[in-house]
Amino acid sequence: MRLLSWFVVVPAALAVVAFSVSNRADVAVDFWPLPFTSEFRVFAVVLVSIFAGFVLGGLVAWISGGKRRRRARAMARRAKAAEAEAARLRDKVADLEEAPEKQEIALPAPPDAA
């Protein structure tokens, strides 16, 4: 897995360096609602835009998965409670099987056939 990540990271880093070296011209960036404009290098504008898009996409994905994470936590709590109940019942059965006296079970009376 580590070798595979090197096969992805190294070419991506080389592509970023090559892009940065070949796009060093200045570009004017206008911050629309604000009354000023700034000059930045083209590669800086593009790389910051890509990074901001990545972060914004991750935020949207995290927010949209909130219901599934909440449901998974609820299911985990239910599973833990069910496991505890199963262990309690297993212990109860083991105690009943070890009891020396015979336990009599009272069965309900059969319904009258009318």
Protein architecture, described:
- It is a single chain.
- The protein is mainly alpha-helical and 114 residues long.
- It folds into two domains: 1-64, no CATH class; 67-97.
- The chain has three helices and two strands, in the order H-E-E-H-H.
- It has a two-stranded antiparallel sheet with strand order 1-2.
- It is elongated, with a radius of gyration of 33 Å.
- The protein starts with a helix and ends in a 16-residue tail after the last helix.
Tally of structural domains: 2
Contiguous uncertain segments of 5+ residues = none
Tally of contiguous helical segments: 3
Strand content: 5-15%
Major beta-sheet overview: 2 strands, antiparallel
Number of strands: 2
Strand order of the largest sheet: 1-2
Average residue pLDDT: 90
In whole angstroms, the N-to-C terminal distance is 75 Å
Summarize the helix and strand pattern as letters: HEEHH
